[in-house]
Hints:
By secondary structure, chain A is mainly α.
Amino acid sequence: xxxxxxxxxxxxxxxxxxxxxxxxxxxxxxxxxxxxxxxxxxxxxxxxxxxxxxxxxxxxxxxxxxxxxxxxxxxxxxxxxxxxxxxxxxxxxxxxxxxxxxxxxxxxxxxxxxxxxxxxxxxxxxxxxxxxxxxxxxxxxxxxxxxxxxxxxxxxxxxxxxxxxxxxxxxxxxxxxxxxxxxxxxxxxxxxxxxxxxxxxxxxxxxxxxxxxxxxxxxxxxxxxxxxxxxxxxxxxxxxxxxxxxxxxxxxxxxxxxxxxxxxxxxxxxxxxxxxxxxxxxxxxxxxxxxxxxxxxxxxxxxxxxxxxxxxxxxxxxxxxxxxxxxxxxxxxxxxxxxxxxxxxxxxxxxxxxxxxxxxxxxxxxxxxxxxxxxxxxxxxxxxxxxxxxxxxxxxxxxxxxxxxxx
Amino acid sequence: xxxxxxxxxxxxxxxxxxxxxxxxxxxxxxxxxxxxxxxxxxxxxxxxxxxxxxxxxxxxxxxxxxxxxxxxxxxxxxxxxxxxxxxxxxxxxxxxxxxxxxxxxxxxxxxxxxxxxxxxxxxxxxxxxxxxxxxxxxxxxxxxxxxxxxxxxxxxxxxxxxxxxxxxxxxxxxxxxxxxxxxxxxxxxxxxxxxxxxxxxxxxxxxxxx
Lengths: 407, 210
């Protein structure tokens, strides 16, 4: 690796380097606090739900690839290469797969003595042994290779005799199908084909992932909508709310992050895919089981309680954020927070949590600050907040009189 | 016939472009390497047993889609940072929900990006001089050595050294140390001979293994 090469030689002048590095350090100095939490902030703002979707996407891909390859009786690598071929040539993959099956049916017919099919196979260089021994996809490849000297029309007519009604798609990929091994090697070499063993390892997670998400959904059904809202809040920029969520769902979050970590490392570091990755996989599967069991066996209440208590905390923090923005007359931040309030907050966290946890005086001053910011939108939101809180008897009538903005 | 050395060098000068999860990545550079190291990204760690997670991937993509200086500016502005990242997360989420993204393909692409950024063994072939064989190894990290040489010996500005494709810097570095007598880069005919020999060995291996 480059690492070793570079070490062998150099008697390089260190002055330029140190000069430049001290510049870098200087520039980074005031960022040090932020730097520590940079990755966390990225993940929070990016959204936990998105990460969960990405994991699901990988598991689905592995599962559909392995099942698809089995259904076509081809290898997992061939299946992936075929998909790439379909994408590159604009052929529909499903149509290509159907054509492979048709060739198989035609071979059965030919073996039963069907003249038309026998003649077509023969013209394409396929004999009786091939018909008996080759798999459907191998037959298609051999047929295309065998017809490489034929004109497009003649080849098209033979393919039609073999049951392929619209050979245009296959002919569009004629060159690659006739030399599919090479095409596949090229794609493998350029890193576009995932290792089948890796995909099998990923597929093994399918059941666990489904079980986990189902259990979580069932156990947290009432809180789930709220959870999604909070993830939206996270996406909208309230880091504090995000942190609360991640701490609430530590167990589930940890499992999801572990699963993601496993998948990434399996795919990105295939060199390590030996014993260590197997052990890692086993450890992670047992973590998933633990999480499922935790949610399943009598801990729903605990999780729900944690959701509730964090809901209140989240609401409080969001309110503080809003008040803070209003106080600073920070337009950009206030816009985000106003949007946040309107889109999900007013009817969610404020209704549920309001200013719970803060004493009346704090509540009053927060809302007062909000009103004083002289922003119509903030004032309207405040009116909504007050009205909801009044309805829910969180605020007294007296509070409402004081708090309602003058419009 | 096209020169192998020239092909490899021009590939290093203009590496392939990658767009991953909606962000177009810049050519992998020393600046990216330093930033990932500085912010503890799991994917460049010298410890091969270390494993990166999704946060490492997000960090790597956020870094590699910017120049060194742009990234420093990006993280200084917390609002911009949050707005950009949440917008990015939203777009990726939408695409995942609509099944428009194949995450496995994206990760393989990312792996290729990282791999193509640094010349592999065999991309830059050279003979070591006897002095180099006996030379004491520098304690500096290889990335520091490349950076220093680029700035102090090759005439690159700091920004160029941090932002030009790392693969190109490495080629230039090897050319420089060749001129200093530390190595001798292989000529086309030497590479051809070596590759022919490798092919022959591989074939023999296949025969032996049945």
